Amino acid sequence: MKVTLLGSGTSTGVPRLGGEEGIDWGLCDPAEPRNRRSRVSIVVENERGSRLLVDTSPDLRSQLLNCNITRVDAVFWTHDHADHCHGIDDLRPLRYGRGGPIPAYAASETARRLRQRFGYVFAGQFGYPTIASLDDLQNLRICEGFGVSNCQMTHGPAQSTAYRFDCDGKSVGYATDFSEITRSMVDLFVGCDILVVDCLRREPHPTHAHLGMALELADAARVRRAVLTHLDKSMDYATLSDEVPGHVLVGYDGMVLNA
């Protein structure tokens, strides 16, 4: 299996708009290309060429172009916050040439909110066809040759869905936007070849994992490799890379890993 990090940044991306000069790099070195971060999303691919997209970030179009991804076979959402779903319209060109809408999945509450906000995507409008079908994760076990399992995570006052994708004896886990570690999360990710994990900053945060929590989850689940994502402007790539253990990688936009 292969996982591509389309984006690796927090909700405002890096650099952030604002600051004294109008562009705020925080502690990140602007000369390091891996510090330029768009909003988080991943693609998981198996040896048969099947591709699953997780989340539709507001930067989705440029991410797919940058990574030369012109087709996905299914879409999964972690939750409905803007930085994870507001690029949903960029699925429209991926619908062209298909015999039907792109299969899509989310937990029941996330699905309800997505239908409420983006009804035209899932039902068509004004003669335009349905872009994606949206089904509840409850009964999903296999998708495009992948085994798919999930659990719900606490994301401050909200919830986010954690995913594990298995294929041909390899596994990729995805845990973004969580603020505490639960037994169900550890059980879901135990033994994963790759875990892409939320790591907003070094200090604790009310709705996101910080560095210590991200490393704790990776250790508890005994994953082979962990990749830090959802990084803010305090997380300089080179500095952070020097801090983490050898089996932990600092994620960046366009990063490709083989399980």
UniProtKB/TrEMBL annotation:
UniProt-listed PANTHER family: HYDROLASE C777.06C-RELATED, HYDROLASE C777.06C-RELATED-RELATED
Highest taxon of source: Bacteria
Every Metallo-beta-lactamase domain range: 38-230
Listed SMART domains: Lactamase_B
Signal sequence interval, chain numbering: none
InterPro entries in UniProt: Metallo-B-lactamas (IPR001279), RibonucZ/Hydroxyglut_hydro (IPR036866)
Record's protein name: MBL fold metallo-hydrolase
Organism expressing this protein natively: Novosphingobium kalidii
